[in-house]
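Sequence in, structure out.
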Amino acid sequence: VNQLLTIPGVPPGSLGVRLEGLASNCSVLGSNPQQLAVVAGAPTATRFTVSCTPAGSTTHPGILFGLMNLDDSFLGDVQTGTWRPVTPTNILTELAGARARNARVIIRLVRGDPHLLGPDGNFSLDTWKSMVAAYKGIDFSRYIQDGTVVGHYLIDEPHQSARWGQPLSQSTVESMAQYSKQFWPDLATMVRVVPSWLAKAPIVYTHLDAGWAQYHSRQGDPVRWLAAEAAVAQRLGLGLVIGMNILDGGTSASGIPGHTSGLYSMSADELRRFGSALLGHGYGCAFIMWGYEPVYYSRADIQAAMADLSRLARSHPSTSCRQ
């Protein structure tokens, strides 16, 4: 506590100083790293303020900010959470690992597209239910209550016939949420599709808690686009997860080849512009980006932009995904 460390022989010039090695229940408040201008022959001082919570407790300022499919080793001051598929055999280990880093997680309990198709090549609700039911004997309620688990991700893009043989109906999505609530009534249910699609059917969403608004540059002005989707979510009584497709959602001006041929990843400037526009809206309950790619994320300019957006997410209103 309140220690002073002097590092001699540092050459003059501009440099960054980062504080690392904190306990999992501690975090740095403010900038980390900090930029210093070192002058020859004179000491240059900086100060880090560290906040710690009692071991075993969690604290979650703002809203979850993170990339999909992040390993625990990436969770910390910048990436404060993630979206992650789990299995009945690893769910408790996965949640314990996230909790140890004071991180939050949106979990997918079922396997991907081909495993959810029936003999006719279409989505099978019975198969989906059988996969979810495999967790009913596993007690992860403590992770729901302490906020480690933000939500149950029911299914990905139910409107895409290319994935499911034919689009799922809005009533099917509500049925999936109802099934989840039988086991975990306090766990938010969410689906990755925009609220404007959910509104296309005259459904009263009693069990579904949140939609998903994932931005890419082809959707135009992010402020206008998100305002429209958030207004629909509010009208339906739903929360809203927001985020960006950072690997395929940039413009050609970024010059960074995308995950898909012919598309572009977001530049650091685009991350800041688009992300700050989305985080400026107070309705989002989490900010998730697709997705993690090692070469892209290792870029120093991308990491710096992520840190800037993470600070915005920490100061964002702590909005609930259950409205």
